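Quick one, tokens below:
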């Protein structure tokens, strides 16, 4: 083969012309950008919560993480609605969740209370942030795996990261609602924070939105309850957030019972002979 550089075809005048540049791909459409932009906004909210905690604006710090949780619950549904799911979006969502619901709550609670126990408090914060990262890494590793018993039954494995962050702030909710100093006790907060982190990486079956299906006859009542909860959040945000967390924890044994029941039904169906 000759080392002479390739040139384009000759023009009608016999002069050599440069090859036409390859057709460039168009940029991402707004449909693909919108879910990722919402995910980036959730990340910004979580990081801003850390900034508020540094300046001791505790209310705003927790509100920022709660806002990140609301945005996180929207981006995936919008991506599915617009048919704009992508591997990039999944990776960005996991990284944003690790910071907004792992690092941010750990630092906020450390600055709010457990910095009075420099060693135990910091280890508790580390444990929570690491557990959040491990949970999200496990989710990414299993995203294309068919062998997921909890998912096949309509449940989640462990406490989701946004809910884990909400549970971690339980002492703060109660402290704001009651002004009782014991809820800010660094030992209590450290133990609670570490225990919440362990729930995120546990193999406990927990409810997902798909597993909660109210009967058709009570759907109007369910809508009314959601409206009342929203109103309560505006009037008494800390009591309402604490109540939601208490209800979630109380429903965890029910989730285990229902998952065990569905698992036995699936095993019985598989054990039946074909035909």
């Amino acid at each position: 083969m000759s080392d002479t550089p390739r040139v384009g075809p000759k023009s009608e005048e016999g002069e050599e012309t440069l090859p036409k540049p390859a057709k460039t791909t168009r940029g991402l459409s707004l449909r693909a950008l919108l879910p990722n932009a919402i995910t980036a906004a959730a990340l910004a909210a979580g990081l801003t919560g850390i900034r508020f905690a540094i300046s001791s604006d505790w209310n705003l710090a927790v509100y920022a993480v709660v806002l990140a949780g609301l945005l996180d619950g929207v981006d995936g549904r919008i991506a599915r609605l617009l048919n704009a799911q992508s591997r990039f979006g999944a990776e960005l969502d996991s990284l944003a969740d690790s910071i907004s619901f792992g690092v941010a709550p750990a630092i906020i609670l450390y600055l709010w209370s457990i910095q009075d126990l420099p060693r135990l408090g910091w280890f508790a914060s580390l444990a929570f942030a690491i557990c959040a990262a491990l949970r999200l890494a496990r989710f990414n590793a299993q995203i294309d795996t068919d062998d997921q018993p909890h998912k096949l039954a309509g449940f989640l494995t462990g406490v989701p990261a946004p809910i884990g962050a909400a549970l971690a702030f339980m002492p703060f909710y109660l402290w704001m609602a009651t002004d009782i100093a014991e809820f800010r006790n660094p030992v209590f907060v450290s133990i609670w924070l570490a225990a919440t982190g362990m729930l995120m990486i546990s193999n406990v079956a927990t409810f997902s939105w798909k597993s909660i299906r109210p009967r058709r006859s009570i759907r109007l009542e369910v809508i009314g309850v959601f409206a009342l909860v929203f109103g309560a959040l505006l009037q008494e945000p800390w009591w309402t957030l604490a109540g939601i967390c208490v209800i979630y924890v109380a429903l965890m044994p029910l989730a285990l019972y229902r998952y065990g029941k569905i698992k036995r039904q699936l095993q019985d169906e598989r054990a039946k002979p074909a035909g």
